[in-house]
Design brief:
The protein is mainly alpha-helical. It has helices spanning 28-40, 48-61, 67-77, 79-95, 99-132, 139-163, 165-189, 212-235; strands spanning 6-9, 15-18, 207-208. The chain has one domain: Alternative oxidase (Ferritin, Up-down Bundle). It starts with 5 loop residues before the first strand and ends in a 5-residue tail after the last helix. It binds fe (ii) ion (FE2).
């Protein structure tokens, strides 16, 4: 076990191990509680950009919650963090002479990168599961369209961030809120996942969790952490 890992004992007696990949890994009991909190909490009042995106996703991939649809969500989810990172690096180029400010901008870069990495683990774990279940995915629907969506979403996040960062953070908060609720609901649709052990080649990188149910509860919780960070930045959007 590496220095950044911690052992948790879940309520069921099963052991879970914290690694750096998850956004603060919870125990089984905490995950159950977090899922119920999410299901009880009303969704945010989504802005126009988010509503258009969700309608597009439902139109192309259907309203049903499938692993393939979640994979598309994860592909798009990384994009705002990439765009913020790029803008922040440009900002450092213009502010490095003012060391305090450059330091704060760099802290924001570091945060964006860790959120991006977290979304990357979600994506890899989903892809692994899709391959294992032998789910068929069309090339256009699950490669071309997601990349086009991600490209447009990147430009939108970038532009909003340059014009008014709070708008870009709000769009991301809406996106992450939607993902948090969708994952929490997905778990309720699959009670059999609580009986299935979570086994993945990425478990050491992300988190060692007792069951597949807990895996998706943890992902839902990660999305909540991302949402909360964006909501905080909406209030102090510049690099203060
Ligand atoms: Fe995610």
């Amino acid at each position: 076990m590496t220095s950044h890992q911690e052992v948790h004992t879940a309520g069921s007696g099963a052991m879970s191990v914290r690694t750096q990949g998850a956004m603060g890994q919870l125990s089984h009991d905490e995950l159950m509680k977090a899922q119920q909190e999410t299901l009880r909490t009303p969704r945010r009042h989504y802005g126009l950009g988010a509503r258009v995106l969700f309608a597009l996703l439902d139109g192309v991939y259907g309203k049903r919650r499938t692993l393939s649809k979640f994979k598309v969500l994860e592909l798009v989810a990384r994009v705002p963090y990439q765009s913020w990172e790029q803008v922040a690096y440009i900002a450092i180029t213009h502010t490095y002479a003012r060391t305090d400010l450059a330091r704060r901008v760099f802290d924001r870069v570091t945060e964006s990168r860790s959120q991006q990495d977290n979304e990357q683990w979600h994506l890899l774990i989903l892809e692994e599961r899709i391959v294992r279940e032998g789910l068929k995915e069309g090339w256009v629907k699950f490669t071309v369209i997601p990349q086009a969506l991600a490209f447009v979403y990147y430009q939108l996040s970038w532009l909003l961030y340059v014009v008014r960062p709070a708008w870009s953070y709000r769009l991301n908060a809406d996106f992450e809120d939607h993902a948090e609720h969708e994952y929490a609901t997905l778990v309720t649709e699959h009670p059999e996942w609580d009986e299935e052990r979570f086994e993945s080649v990425f478990a050491d990188d992300y988190a060692r969790l007792a069951s597949v149910g807990d895996l998706f509860r943890q992902i839902s919780y990660d999305e909540r952490v991302h949402k909360d960070e964006s909501v905080t930045h909406m209030k102090e959007p510049r690099f203060r």
